[in-house]
Task: structure prediction
Amino acid sequence: MREFSAEYLRRTREGMWVDSREALSALGLDEREQVLDVGCGTGELSRVLDAETPDDCSVIGCDADLDLLTTASEYVPVVAGDALRLPVSDGSFDLVVCQALLINLPEPSAAVAEFSRVSSDLIAAIEPDNGAVTVESTVDAESALADRARRAYLDGVNTNVALGAATRDAFEAADVEVVATARYDHDRSVTPPYDESALRSAKRKASGEGLADDRETLLAGALTPDEYDDLRSAWREMGRTVVDQIGDRTYRRTETVPFHVTVGRVDA
Result:
């Protein structure tokens, strides 16, 4: 399973449910008593679950990364554990949920089966379709380059990071009945005034640092070293234009990531 820093998870997950929580309606959060957030990371979803459940409901965050749990523990009680071997007893939660976890596992259905072991009622997975991400930008080249880099990354990564609606297949493979699905489009926008995250991202584009970090994955697919070098050169040129537009306060960018919420019921 890939590892992520606390800063990365905060940056990618913060604001996830600020504009709407309608896609979580099938989880029946107002009726829950015991909720387990598996792969909770730094606790962004845990905070939402804690806010949307009754005051006497216990929301527990679970992650294998102790450093991430340190941050999550500021919001909810936490427990260290692997998604495939949860350190809790059978049927001890009435909702087990994860967000952007199954896309990082080689066998998502194995985790779903483990979720169903520890749930007495519902399990839910909120998984992105990274193959359907769209980017709109005031920098003409950015959308096409982002798509090109994304396709190469998807070709080289060793898990299904475009799981999305296919999460249903993982539930069915684990013999869990799917009772509801919903799609939620999460928009991440960059507009003036620019925060530190936007400025840091622009600098990474201009230096090509982001693509360099993913070089091994990008080259694991069909992308050749020469094609990678061409992509990185074009990416850096695009990044310099981003930096220029930020300096002029004219840069705007919206990335839309579709998430699919899949809910299953555990047989009594």
